[in-house]
Amino acid sequence: MASFEKRGKRTRVVVSVMQSGVRRKVSKTFDTKKKAKDWAIMMEADKLQNRSIIASSMTFADYFKMWMETYKKNDIRPSTYNTYISTLRHIKESFDGITLENLTYSLLQSRLDTIGKTLSKGTMTLIVSRIKACLKDALYDKYILDDIFTRLKPHGIERSKKTNALSVTEFEKLQDYLYHSKLDKASLAILVALETGMRIGEVLALQYKDVSIPFNNIHVNKSRSGNIVGKPKNKNSVRDIKITNELANIISNEKNNSTEFIFNCRRQTVRNRLDSLISKLDLQPITIHGLRHSHASYLLYKGVSINYVSARLGHANTSITQKVYAHMLKEEKTREQDKTIEILSVSPNVPKAINKY
Description:
By secondary structure, the protein is mostly helical. The chain folds into two domains: 3-140, DNA polymerase, domain 1; 168-339, hpI Integrase, Chain A (Orthogonal Bundle). The chain contains 14 helices and eight strands. The strands form three sheets. Strands 1-2-3 form a three-stranded antiparallel sheet, with helices on one face. A hairpin with a 2-residue loop joins strand 2 (10-19) and strand 3. The radius of gyration is 27 Å and the shape is globular. The relative contact order is 0.08. Residues 58-139 form the Core-binding (CB) domain. Residues 161-338 form the Tyr recombinase domain. Pfam families: Phage_int_SAM_3 (PF14659), Phage_integrase (PF00589).
């Protein structure tokens, strides 16, 4: 039987197993006793079903599912968890029936390379990182006996990067059109995203109480995925964003006392509306997230400090902003260099060239 012991506010569970005639103990510590009991029940069930806890005959897909439900489901946003479900689907398709005890580095890398023939390098990087994290726990819990994951590399399709942001002219064209049109909810969501740089999940989670009309301020403290409203991406995502009088008035005029949420539309509805506007106004194609990039790029182009832009976006630090918007910062550097030379050249203390002719 499993034994439990308190470790401060955490609970440690120990399960005794036999391997090659030798009794060994497998232990794990959890934040709650319930999680500890659930894990202990699962381990005991493994023994009753003649599964070896040490080098388990559990399939890789089953273990990954158990791992993400145990360690990820309650600690990440629903939208992020959906991407783990997508990773599980790839594992089921490519590692069908393969058990943990039969996994090897070469098998893993070979199957991942096959997956990578149809997916981008960025997507494969996410899949590989999750598989590494999963198998690291499997090794810690003795479900596998060797490190077969550290050397794994993500190989995928190298796709040319397209600018997912509107130019300054396009930004102002879309902004002008939205301000001078009768807005439906999807169009208003686009305007809010364009003028605040909020993530679409943050926009769709907005309640009227989050918008302070007297102070022209939006308080961001949650995000929506489908019908689920939860915490925003991270602690830095909780922030206050200053907005214009014009935007505050539009939101105020849209107020509906029958609902606490400003937007009653889905992400796909906003996506469809944005595509329609892009076609109508002849703008370069961008995603909904491209509205956030467009907002930041526009502010940086107009000379707003990167420190403020970073805080407005909810980035943890400016290095993230610098990495994402490096192309805009290069343009700013060139512009500031030209401005510096112009200022120094007109100084009365700088000798002027004499025209000899």
